[in-house]
Amino acid sequence: MQPTAFRRALASTLIYIALGCGHRARVPNAGTREPVDVVLTVTNHHFLDITVYLEHDGQRTRVGTVTAASTAQFRLRGNNISASRQFRLFATAIGSDENVRTETLTIQSGQTIEWTLEHDLRRSSVGIY
After folding, report:
1. Which of 4, 108, 116, 121 is a good FRET partner for 26, with 20 to 30 A between their CA atoms?
2. Helices (H), the chain
3. What Cα–Cα distance (Å) separates residue 86 from each residue in 46, 51, 80, 103, 121?
């Protein structure tokens, strides 16, 4: 092979490699877990306002506050939920040392969470629908 032919072949090979490296085929739902936004409805039967947190991957993120004897809805951002979609909810009564934590929850696409906080926070319940 002559030097100019070799250079052309090398240049075209490098161009094909460069173009190929920049392209990545996306296969929908091929084992990847896209972040999913989740609706959380909190019903507060407690006589104090409650601050709600999301615990995942060793960190706690504040979701919002639910006024006493009322219901509030929150949208949990998908990127705030761990890749495994496992997390816990934590709530604390403002002005008190009372708090409650759910067991580890796992959420799937399209599901919603309903958390009912009772006057005695230890009797609270959570449901995923």
Report:
1. 108
2. 3-22
3. 27, 20, 11, 10, 22
Q: How far apart are CA 118 and CA 125, in angstroms?
A: 8
Q: What gap in Å lies between CA 93 and CA 52, rounded to an integer?
A: 9
3-state class (DSSP) for residue 61:
strand
**Overall average pLDDT of the 4-24 stretch:** 63
Q: Per-domain residue ranges for the chain?
A: 38-128
DSSP state of 9: H
Q: Topology of domain 38-128, per CATH?
A: Immunoglobulin-like (2.60.40)
Distance (Å, whole) CA 115 – CA 53: 12
Residue 53: the pLDDT is 98
Q: What is residue 23's three-state secondary structure?
A: coil
C-beta of residue 69 within 8 angstroms of C-beta of residue 45: yes
